Amino acid sequence: MTTHELLRDAALPSLARIDAYDWVLVLGCGIGWTSRRAAHRAHRGQVLGLDARPGMLARARELAAAEELRNLRYADVSGLSAGLGAGDFDVAIVHSGVAWSALTALSRVLVPGGRVVVECEDPGEAAARLSAAGFTEVAPAAPEVVAAVAAG
């Protein structure tokens, strides 16, 4: 990971305005860097990191256990389409590389007014796809990051 990527990923929980009681979903969590930062911020809430790569999830679990984060769990990304209920999360963080089709599912699992932050290579495309998925207040939040609010 480059220094730029580390700084950007460290900023994502702040850009998503995570507070102590939020329930947070992290898509494309990798080894859990952003998920662990989110779990520290949402220390009275819950964080779920999803990824499709078993090796990354195993390492993420190890790192979370080392930090004794009891409000953080990891699962295979297939959980986004099965097992997550409407309005289960206050915040979603989406890392680059996650399929754009996930945005439609996000609009369902976020509470009305829930916040989403998307890390992306093309902020214009991310903004257009967020708008098409029904999100509002779509705007750049930082270089390579777009923020939006779930319609309510």
Automatic annotation (TrEMBL):
Database matches in InterPro entries? Methyltransf_25, SAM-dependent_MTases_sf
Query: Any keyword Methyltransferase?
Result: yes
State the Gene Ontology BP annotations.
Answer: methylation
**Which keywords does UniProt give here?**
Methyltransferase, Transferase
Q: Domain named Methyltransferase: which ranges?
A: 24-114
Please provide, alphabetically and separated by semicolons, the GO molecular function terms listed in this UniProt record.
methyltransferase activity
Q: What is this protein called?
A: SAM-dependent methyltransferase
Q: State the organism of origin.
A: Phytomonospora endophytica
